[in-house]
Each structure stands twice: as C-alpha cells, then as structure tokens.
C-alpha cells in the first residue's frame, strides 16, 4: 500500500473523494537540485509602460523557450517576453492601464492579474481565453494601496501546467501619495528585491516532470527556482534589504526563515503595507500568497534564506505534503565594508549581526499604513464555503454555472472550512479581504492586513470579511478557489458576479465564451475578447 493511500486511510474522510495518485517509480526519479558554486540571482526586468495619452500600455507575449536550471542541461520552459517568467509591470494607483497579451504558445491560455481589483471582463480568468496566435487586451485603472501582485495563466483545467512551465510575473503597484514608503528600502533590484519562489521536479534529462504528478495536493519538487535561478546568490550592496516574497509554486507551503535564526520585520502582506511592522523569524506563505520583509545584513557575512517548518496545521501525513522538508532558497552576502573600516579586528567585528529588538532597529517607522478594520457586526450576508475533495460546497467547478451574485459595496462574512486532513487555501478575485478569526481565535500579525489568498488549516474554519466595492457586471463572473493549482484544475473553484441591487445565493446558468473542460480548451474559432 503506497504512502498516499495510507495517509488517506488514517484520515478517514478523503478516500471516497480524492483519487490516489501513484507514487514515484524507479524509472521516473527526480533529478537532484544543482550544487556547486551559487549563481547570481536574476532580477526580473522592470517594464516601464509606453504612454498612449493618459493610458500606460504594456505588451506581453506568452512564448516557449529553454532554461538552464541544471548547469549544462536545457529544460523546455514557457515565459512572457522571454523563456521563463516575465517582466515586472510597474503600475501606479489611479493611472489607466492597458496590457496587450499575445499568445504564441501551442495551446489556449489566459492572463489573470492576481491581487488587483478590476472589472470582471479584464480579470483574465477562464472566461477570457486567448487562443494560439491571437491577442487580448485588458484595460483597468488600479485604485488600491501600493502592493505586490502577480500575473499568471488561469485557463480552466490547465492552470497548474502553465504556471509550472514558467508563466508568471510580478505586478508592482505604487501609490505616489504613500508617505510610509519614504522610510522603507525602495530601489528596485538594489535594496528592494522581488523573489518569485517555485519548486520543480526535474527528470534525469533535465525536463520538467508533469505538474500533476506527485501527491494528492499536486507537485512537490526538491529543486527550488528563484526568479528562474537554481542555487541563487544575492550580493547585497546595502545593509537593509527589502525582499518581496512571492509563493509562485503550484502546491508547496513555505516557512521562510534564515538558517541562523535572525529576526527581521514583516511590513506587508498580499494587499500592501500592514498597519505597523512586526518582528518575526519566519514567514509562512501558501501558493499565491505574498509578503514583504526587511532584513539587515552586515559586511563580510554570508546568510542563508531557507524554508523549514511551514505553518500547516494538523495535516494527516506531514511527509506527504512537504511539511517536514527543509530547502535552501537563497544565499545572501553582506554589503562591502566601508573604506575606513579599520584594522582586521574591526572588520571581523563588522560581521556580527546587530540584534534586532524593535522595528526601529531596522530604520522602519512605527506606523506604516492606515488599515481600518471591518466589523463582523456590519456584515449583511454570511456565506459558507466547505472545501472537501476537489469540490466547494459539494459542487465541482462548472463554466456554465454562476454560484451566487454578491451585491456591490456590501460587507459579507465568508466562513471557509477545510473539511479535509490535507492542505487547502482560498483565493478571491476582485477582493482584498480581512481575516476576522481562525476557529474563533484572533489571527496572527501576518494575517492582520489586506489579503486576497489565505491558507486554511485542515479541519478548521477561517472567517473572512469581504467587500466588493465596485465593478458590477451581471454577465461576467469572478472566481473563488483553492490556489493549490492541482485542486483548482480538478474542480475546487466556483464563480460569482457582483451586481447592483439585491444579490442571490442560488446558482444560475451562464453561457461562457470558453467551453467547460478540465484539460484546456483546444482549438476554437471566434473567441470572445480576442483578436489578431
């Protein structure tokens, strides 16, 4: 009996609902991660827009290429404007944006702007397909606090494969009126550094193994790729570094920490700055989640960012879901010593990392942003979302069914329950919500800010306060789903519209421009929202 089946039998609840995936066989062993000399960390290109009047215009092309994860071995990958990942799009609050996306891949794709509140027709979900050889344009005006978002494909039934091959990139939303940013490292690529972290399974010939191959949560690889690089090295030029951490993996939950146990400050979560910085020695991110941290490095030191002991709750089999894995993420060397550092004794003393006992030790302001708290008593509607098997509320995703309609600008309480003994998380499109409680307990500081994706521990309830402030459209839906991409593709997703006037809690029929399918759309003509 394989490990996956044993874990499900111990859990008792999942066996009828989740098919057991075969274990790795001797002929398909994963190649080990690259070793030897670290290679420089690439920083994604910061793509400045072309201006069309007042509209900031970007152009992205989804294309195939090759990457060298293992030195001397090429791996077939996909990317935007290159072989792997894509450029960072610089957005400004209140500035109209147009993104023209061209699909040069052999299959249909979409591009979803994860974390951005925008009209449903521009959301880039499964109802805005871009067929091979065609283009699609998204137009929107971001109006929310400065934050780190990301963009990635969202075709129904094929999201996991496309993200796994490398289709992803950063959205850097700036707010020119944000005074707090003046006290935080903010020079892109120098002291403000994005880290898109993904894990891969590599076959012995260097090729990517199937994204759905592994456990019942999806792919778990031992080869970590950061900004497209395995075994990366970041040479700090300054003592204080801001890292924008993005969990771009399909499945893996990370517990980011430094091997020496140093303390650092978390300053932001998915939707932007927290109300105040807080000190910690670990950041826990499930797929799709983001966090920003500020860390001090001193001249002459070498530090190791790792992942260990991710906060996952009472999972049935920790080994099955990567809860006990320890992975090297990034090597960091401290900045150059000052020219007048003095004798060798003084230089050696510089290598001692000063203790961080308060955010002020990192030069951070005591208050970062106003984060007004929603009140649960003001919620006009309560909705229940039971995550079990590959379904939500005992229904698998259907492109032709809208699950409910939410009234615009109404505060709602969403109760999200993980019924299973394995990990799930929960992402809502067109929203930045607040976590009210986890099984009745106040959320930890890292969940106290604006969120669009949250980990839901096994057999626990996470309650969210959600409001859709604008962008009504009774005909085009948004998505809510588990962001473990294998689960999403297998049906753990639903859809809703935002409407003027009273909403509805009942499912209704919907005619999608894209057909309902679990493994991509296939060739088709006359796609809505597409053109040559």
Please give a structural write-up.
This protein is 5% helix and 37% strand. It has helices at residues 3-11, 159-165, 344-350, 485-490, and strands at 39-40, 46-47, 50-52, 55-70, 73-80, 88-92, 97-103, 112-114, 135-140, 147-152, 169-174, 192-200, 223-226, 229-230, 232-235, 240-247, 254-258, 264-269, 272-280, 283-285, 290-296, 302-307, 327-333, 381-388, 391-392, 401-402, 404-407, 412-418, 424-428, 434-438, 453-456, 461-466, 473-481, 493-499, 508-509. The strands form seven sheets. It has a seven-stranded mixed beta sheet, with no helix packed on it. Strand 4 (55-70) and strand 5 form a beta hairpin. Mean pLDDT is 88; it is low at 1-29 and 517-532.
Short description:
With about 525 residues, the chain is mainly beta. It has helices at about 5-10, 160-165, 345-350, 485-490; strands spanning about 40, 45, 50, 55-70, 75-80, 90, 95-105, 110-115, 135-140, 145-150, 170-175, 190-200, 225, 230, 230-235, 240-245, 255-260, 265-270, 270-280, 285, 290-295, 300-305, 325-335, 380-390, 390, 400, 405, 410-420, 425-430, 435-440, 455, 460-465, 475-480, 495-500, 510. It contains 4 helices and 35 strands.
How large is the share of residues in beta strands? 35-45%
Largest sheet: 7 strands, mixed
**CA-atom Rg in angstroms:** 22 Å
Helical residues, percent: under 10%
Regions with little confidence, pLDDT below 50 for 5+ residues:
1-29, 517-532
User: Count the strands?
Assistant: 35
Number of helices: 4
How far apart lie the N and C ends?
52 Å
Class computed from helices, strands and strand pairing: mainly beta
Shape: globular
| Average residue-wise pLDDT | 88
Strand order of the largest sheet: 14-13-12-16-21-18-19
């Amino acid at each position: 009996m394989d490990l996956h089946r044993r874990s499900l039998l111990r859990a008792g609840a999942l066996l009828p609902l989740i098919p057991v995936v075969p274990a790795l066989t001797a002929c398909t062993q994963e190649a080990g991660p690259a070793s030897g000399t670290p290679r420089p960390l690439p920083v994604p290109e910061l793509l400045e827009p072309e201006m069309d009047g007042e509209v900031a215009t970007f152009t992205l092309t989804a294309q195939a290429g090759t990457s060298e994860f293992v030195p001397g071995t090429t791996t077939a990958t996909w990317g935007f404007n290159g072989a792997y990942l894509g450029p960072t799009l610089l957005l400004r609050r209140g500035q109209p944006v147009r993104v023209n996306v061209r699909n040069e891949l052999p299959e249909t794709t979409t591009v979803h702007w994860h974390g951005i509140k925008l009209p449903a027709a521009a959301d880039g979900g499964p109802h805005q397909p871009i067929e091979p050889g065609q283009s699609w344009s998204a137009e929107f005006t971001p109006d929310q606090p400065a934050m780190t978002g990301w963009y990635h494909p969202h075709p129904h039934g094929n999201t996991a494969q496309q993200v796994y091959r490398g289709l992803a990139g950063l959205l850097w939303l700036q707010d020119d009126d944000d005074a707090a940013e003046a006290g935080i490292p903010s020079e892109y690529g120098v002291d403000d550094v994005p880290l898109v972290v993904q894990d891969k399974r590599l076959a012995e010939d260097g090729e990517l193994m199937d994204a759905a191959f592994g456990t019942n949560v999806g792919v778990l690889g031992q080869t970590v790729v950061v900004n497209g690089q395995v075994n990366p090295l970041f040479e700090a030029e300054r003592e204080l570094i801001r890292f924008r951490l993005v969990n771009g993996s399909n499945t893996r939950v990370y517990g980011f920490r430094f091997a020496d146990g140093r303390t650092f400050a978390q300053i932001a979560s998915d939707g932007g700055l927290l109300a105040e910085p807080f000190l910690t020695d670990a950041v826990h991110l499930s797929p799709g989640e983001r966090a920003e941290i500020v860390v001090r490095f001193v001249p002459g030191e070498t530090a190791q960012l790792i992942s260990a002991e991710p906060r996952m709750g009472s999972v049935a089999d920790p080994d099955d879901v990567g809860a006990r894995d320890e992975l090297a993420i990034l090597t960091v060397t401290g900045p150059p010593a000052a020219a007048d550092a003095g004798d060798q004794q003084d230089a050696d003393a510089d290598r001692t990392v000063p203790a961080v006992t308060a955010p002020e030790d990192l030069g951070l302001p005591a208050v970062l942003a106003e984060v007004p708290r929603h009140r649960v008593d003001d919620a006009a509607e309560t909705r229940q979302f039971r995550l079990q098997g590959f379904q939500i509320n005992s229904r698998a995703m259907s492109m032709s069914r809208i699950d409910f309609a939410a009234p615009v600008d109404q505060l709602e309480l969403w109760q999200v329950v993980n019924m299973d003994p394995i990990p799930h998380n929960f992402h809502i499109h067109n929203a930045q919500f607040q976590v009210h409680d986890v099984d009745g307990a106040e959320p930890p500081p890292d969940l106290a800010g604006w969120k669009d994706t949250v980990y839901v521990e096994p057999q626990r309830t996470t309650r969210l306060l959600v409001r859709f402030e604008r962008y009504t459209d009774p005909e085009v839906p948004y998505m809510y789903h588990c962001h473990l991409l294998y689960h999403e593709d297998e049906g753990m997703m639903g859809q809703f519209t935002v409407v003027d006037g009273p909403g509805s809690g009942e499912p209704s029929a919907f005619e999608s421009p894209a057909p309902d399918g679990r493994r991509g759309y296939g060739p088709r003509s006359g796609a809505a929202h597409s053109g040559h």
